Amino acid sequence: MGKMSNQTVLDKLNQQFGERISAVSEPFGLLTFETSKDSIISILTFLKNDPELKFIYLTDITGIHYPGTEFPIGVIYHVHSLVNNVRVRIKVFLEELNPVVSTATVLWDGANWMERETYDFFGITFEGHPNLCRILNVDDMTVFPMRKEFPLEDPNRVDKRDFFFGR
Amino acid sequence: MSDIKLAEAPPGIEGSGFFATSFDKVVGLARSHSLWPLPFATSCCGIEFMATMGAHYDLARFGSERPSFSPRQADMLLVMGTIAKKMGPVLRQVYLQMAEPRWVIAVGACACSGGIFDSYSVLQGIDEVIPVDVYVPGCPPRPEAILSGVLKLQEIVKNESLRRRDGPEYQELMSKYGIQ
After folding, report:
1. Which ipTM did the prediction report?
2. Distance between CA A94 and CA B139 in Å, rounded?
């Protein structure tokens, strides 16, 4: 079967969801759009279960932080239609304090660890996740290290102190 | 004619049929030439250690013939590579399982100071969790440098008093790491 065009996918989504889909773009040919946290699960369900689209493969869930904007915390979903050879990227932006979004584990079991990782690094809560705890960082870590307000460097580092450089 | 050199006897009083010297020196000499290494290799420094153990550099020449992959029978813990913070408790556990006397060599920049990984997820030197006797710099160090580190440790072991590990200084060091 040949590749389905981005326009076909977009038309089907527009027909179903209308203005719940915004900021559509195609960087490097990858169909990308934004949606709200209320619509994300229904859009993912539609993409997965539609008999023509068949976006059955969840490639990745990750997060992003743009400080200083109105909705600085983003959750990014990549889904792949193996049959139609086409991919889609969906972004959901959330408020900084207490970002909450529904879990995608109801659709893909593989979303379990991806959401744990996103929680671990960005502090995004996935409502309905069966076991939302840290996965890669140490359990007693108190910060969400990929948020911009937390420094990358370890404070215990001694050989980079200004003292050693005459500053 | 063999060119194998035997270790030099410690200073003592020698006579016909007897040799008297200090017990400390004899035990130190024996220990220093049978340091069983426990390689704790997590990255590229471990590859250099494999070369060190191989025929060309041959760590076995210095009495470290048998790499001990159980900490219970090991004397010398060689930590080679980046230790992530999540790995810290594991490393500490391995150290605690070693029987006294035990020594630690931190091989490479990462084990010594965190190296290039100045990051929230990496331990900035293993001396944050366990005491270290010898630091080997390099990124990664050449096998010669690792050998030099082991020889340095042999000097420490030779000159260590038999009861150092019961001494207040050592006990204080251990309690600083919350061990005991």
Report:
1. 0.78
2. 42
